[in-house]
Design brief:
globular, 6 strands, single chain, 10 helices, 48% helix, Rossmann fold
């Protein structure tokens, strides 16, 4: 088995199929209001905080773009569709969490999403108790790709970054984990791996089931 003490997970796009769910809400809004080319700026926002997402959208559509109004409507749509445990989980979530618990490894979360949302979604899915620590977007001052969120997660679980794997789906997440000295594993979601990601990651795998196999060997 690989030598490591902890795994730090991203949440959106790694544990939940929420990146796709959120994008579908935004694409629905774009169609409703005639906003063109929404997919490209949305994908640029993956793995970032609400603040950085707002900046990216204003850069794409101009300072007069009513981002806050649209974000509120997209959020309402999302919660109506997926709250209460209806948010689909990615394949292999229970398998990897059970494996890590059985092996006595620390489990942390480093998500750019707000803490209350993170807690609600993990609780609704019945997996909150697996996590030793949650570090969320409202607990750090810098967004991914800055390593602050991963370094704080390692600090909270008492593990050196080099002894922790980070599981990420987004480019900014992999950049963040690599910059923090963790061992990044990319499990691509909306964005495919590319040459930079191959270079920054210890490995790129198709699913969390594959990650369990990788860690076991």
């Amino acid at each position: 088995m690989k030598k490591f003490e902890a795994v730090v997970f991203d949440m959106d796009g790694v544990i939940f199929d929420s990146e796709r769910a959120t994008m579908n809400c935004w694409l629905e809004l774009a169609e409703k209001y005639g906003i063109e080319n929404m997919e490209e700026p949305y994908l640029a926002c993956t793995g970032t905080t609400d603040k950085r997402t707002r900046e990216i959208m204003l850069e794409a559509y101009g300072d007069d773009f009513p981002y806050d109004v649209y974000a509120k409507e997209a959020s309402k749509m999302y919660h109506e569709k997926y709250d209460g445990g209806r948010l689909p989980m990615k394949n292999g979530v229970h398998a990897i969490l059970d494996f890590l618990k059985y092996e006595g490894k620390k489990i942390a979360l480093a998500s750019s999403t707000k803490r209350q949302t993170v807690e609600n979604q993990l609780r609704d899915a019945g997996i909150l108790d697996y996590f030793d620590e949650l570090v969320t977007g409202d607990m750090v001052s810098k967004s991914k790709p800055d390593p602050e969120i991963f370094l704080l997660a390692c600090e909270k679980i008492g593990v050196k970054p080099e002894d922790a794997y980070a599981i990420e789906d987004s480019y900014n997440g992999i950049r963040s984990a690599n910059a923090g000295g963790l061992r990044p594993i990319m499990v691509p979601d909306l964005l495919p791996s590319n040459e930079e990601m191959e270079e920054l990651s210890e490995t790129v795998l198709e699913s969390l089931i594959d990650v369990v196999g990788y860690l076991r060997n």
